[in-house]
Design a protein that fits this description.
single chain, alpha/beta, Rossmann fold, five-stranded mixed β-sheet, about 35% helix, globular
Length: about 170
């Protein structure tokens, strides 16, 4: 069995696209799916704000790469790579429209399955997520999407995954 077949990788964009920068994870996933093809062992999904509904794909994964807005009190557009204990400090919007915070969902998955996949978060400090609802992402975050995509692709490779750019 190849390393690729052994490693099930879940790339998941989180957030509410109606709340501007809070939807950045979903927007990055959209661009990944537009620009790259992934083998069968890699699922790239819009996790939105679905909480517990995400348990099945999480439990079925060996590695999770989460893309989300993260509040760490740095300038808007600051990109983060968080893993291990940093994950616990990272995910913002605990009291937002998310049904359930990602960490709570991950803990529930571990309780149900006895398995906890490795998790890495590619996060970005939002600029605007509390004003009037809008589908628009701030320019500060739009400018950083290529960097976030590069970091996600690096994480995929780091756990033995592959991808292929789509023809223009």
């Amino acid at each position: 069995m190849t390393a690729e077949a052994e490693n099930k990788i879940l790339v998941m964009g989180l957030g509410n696209i109606l709340l501007r920068d809070e939807g950045i994870g979903v927007r990055v996933v959209e661009r990944l799916l537009e620009r790259y093809e992934f083998p069968q062992n890699i699922r790239v999904i819009d996790g939105g704000v679905r909480g517990m509904i995400l348990m099945d794909p999480i439990i079925d994964s060996d590695h999770i790469i989460v893309i989300d807005a993260v509040l760490n009190e740095h300038p808007p557009g600051t990109v983060y790579r968080l893993d291990g204990d940093d994950v616990k400090l990272s995910l913002a919007f605990k009291n937002s429209v998310h049904d359930m915070d990602f960490l709570e969902t991950l803990c529930c998955c571990e309780l149900v399955s006895g398995k906890k996949p490795s998790a890495v978060i590619i996060g970005i400090e939002p600029k605007d997520y509390q004003s009037d609802p809008s589908l628009e992402i701030s320019q500060e975050l739009l400018d950083r999407i290529p960097e976030m995509i590069e970091k996600v692709l690096n994480e995929i490779e780091a756990v033995g995954g592959t991808y292929t750019p789509k023809a223009a």
